[in-house]
Design brief:
heterodimer; A: 242 residues; alpha/beta; six-stranded mixed beta sheet; 35% helix; 27% strand; B: 635 residues; alpha+beta
Chain lengths: 242, 635
Amino acid sequence: MQSETVIALEGVSRTYGAGPTAVRAADGIDIGFRRGSWTAVMGPSGSGKSTLLHCAAGLERVDAGRVMLGDTDITTLDDDELSELRRTRIGFVFQSFNLVGALTAEQNVALPLRLAGRRPKRDEVRTALAAVGLGERAGHRPRELSGGQQQRVAIARAMVTRPEVLFADEPTGALDTSAARDVLRLLRTSADDGQTIVMVTHDPAAAARADAVVFLRDGRIVDRLAGADVRAVADRLVALEA
Amino acid sequence: MLRLSWAGFRERWTLFAGAVLTVCLGVALVQSSLLLLISAAAGSAPAGATALARMRFDASTEAAVALLGVTLGFAALLAVFIISSTFAFTVEQRRRELALLRLVGGARRQIRRLLLAEATLLGLVGSALGVPVGVGLMAVQTWLLHRLGFVPDGFTGRWQLWIVAVSVGTGVILAVAGVSLAARRAARVRPLDALRETGEATRVMTTARWLTGLLFLAGALTLIGLSPVGGAVGGQAMAMNVSVCAAIGLTLLGPSLVPAVARLIPVRAAGVLGELAAANLRDDRRRTASTAAPVIVLVGLLLGQAAASSSFTAAGRQEQQRWIAADLVIDAPQAPGDRVAATPGVAGASTEVEVPIALTTGNGDLAYTRSATALLVDPVSYVRTHPGAGDLTALREGAVAAGPGADGFSPGDTVGVRVGDRDLGPLPVVAAVPQAIGGGATVLLPAEVVPEEQLAGVPSHTFVQLAPGVPRQQIVAALTGVGTVSDLDAWLERDSVARTATSTGVLIMVMGLGGLYALIGVINSVVVAGATRPREFASVRVTGFTRGQVIRTAVLESVVVTVAGLLLGLLAAAGTLVGVAATTAAVTGAVTVDVPWLLVSAVVAGTLLVTAVTSTVATRTATREHPVAVLGARQ
């Protein structure tokens, strides 16, 4: 089962704008992500990292190609089906943690389940929070938590639905080194437990924790490293930006 | 979902407090006006009153009902407008939060449901507060009605239990209706918008909004165009409605118009603060428009109605001055008979007695009876003191003439007239005097049709023409025994004020309370605009602005938006003045425009002061926290 592809982009293209100012943010991208793999996506700014992530997650429509999540081509889904997908099969973690400020950590984590019309069991949510080391912070609101803690709540929220893929967009971008290390450790544990993770980052230290690193430039995949250390990732990135 | 709503309430209570306040006051105003309207309509004359007194009572009831009907209409219009715009605004301010819900899997229908559930809750809370406030407001309105003499002594508004259902229903329905459109648009928010710090610039002006706005402006222009052909009554009504239509139209087009008008104001001259203020106004057109909207409505309606009312009063007075050829007027407690004409030095005298009548127009199934007034005159003397009256020789017993306030019938028709309990039967309309802008009696009747004993205690006025060369003093002295003698001009001044008492009453009742309500809408929108921007203020502060500078910028913004709103509101009011000019020119032959400058300056200064103070307080509150703490607390 190790080699089963969970999500695959097939010839995905996306162009912003038109005419001479048009930007090809994704240019015929073909890539598959295996179950339980953690893939980092890197590249200079403007290389199309975020576009790849957004297209893969169904947040952005594609101009050409398709995105297969299991047997589902998500590019053909309507808005309701995509909403359903987001609360059942896909999880998100972002640089700005995007928690609902009015809700406690516990309520934030329960949100996707509640939106799915389920009355979450208290244990279920507590377990998810405990898994990110915040079992005793359940009743706190985001503003009463540190950045690292907020990001861990966001991870718990993304993971509570046991999604097939977890998309992370610069998850450590707004964190200090030690908080970032905690978050990366958490992602590593999840991946080892079989969670598929696709993560956009510009931090070689974060990318080095992943199983593989994919490099993008001008909307195309230009390289792929597996099991590289921080140094190798950084060197490759510098070479690309040159 | 409701628990999520509740959490949202606690978090953003300032945003919602304003929404609740608008529902509360809207419901209170509608409830009070409705109860008074019903109480007035159900009133009956005291037992033992004479037929004429009963008729007089019915006439005043009809006036009070009409006044309260207009009050209710305006209250409802304002409530719909202010509640819906406030609620739509609160939804717009939460785009990011809603996008976030979409991001974690919220479907559009769920967002809509959430917002509608909130609106229902806010509507319920607002109505629950509005019902007791309405009871208090009814006392104030009753006092005003007594003060203005629209209701007999002893009149009280009666409480009805079912009004609670109506009030709560009104509050909830208006809140939900206000939100539903905004909710549809908000539900269309893309999940990706949650990732953007400021949210994508959205299209503020939808096609529907453009069309509706232009439709209302076209309506205003049509009313201006039609007012000169609407006659005295129709023209006035049309002219007065111009500012209503124009204010609504301009408000709908606000997101395009307000920033454009604000750009004309040289705020950049205030240096870097001014530049930032100007940039903010341009950047968030929706906020700019929402802040200006209640100002446009307040100024447009209040000043439009006030200017129209004072213009028509002035026109009525000037018209009478041209129309009546007399030197003195005698007010007597009853008709003086021949004593005036017999006084040496009096060249002519025309005694007029105004009595309430029941007037039936149309016949068969279409027959319609209403309260009206008849002026009992001696046709020959009347024509002498009213040289423009035309030929009234056919006006004798068994006939009527259409009076200066006639409406809905003309010579050749037959009308039924009943004075007290005397039915004069169907009478042919044999002549018509010109319609007067200030209104007046509906029909003229020859004095002899009503026996003198029935007129006991009914006051009269007599226009007196003096023979040339006779000392005025001497005649005044001789006539003092008949009644109170006044100069024509002084009498006309009093008479025109009395004649326009209804429209003045409408102005005070409707515009006074409505204006207050709109003013609260102004305060509200400024508070909402300020309360949702702590993050933006914080990021300006970390770039080096002091708190004082942030506050000054925000106040500058509010003032500029208010000035833009004032200008558009004045434009709407000016529309009414054009209608007034056209109507007065058509009816009286002379353009009469009377702008109540004192009121205009008071409203302009008051609105500016209120927005500046509110904005200062709101921004102070929004900047109380340390900017770094605000920016650190990411959502």
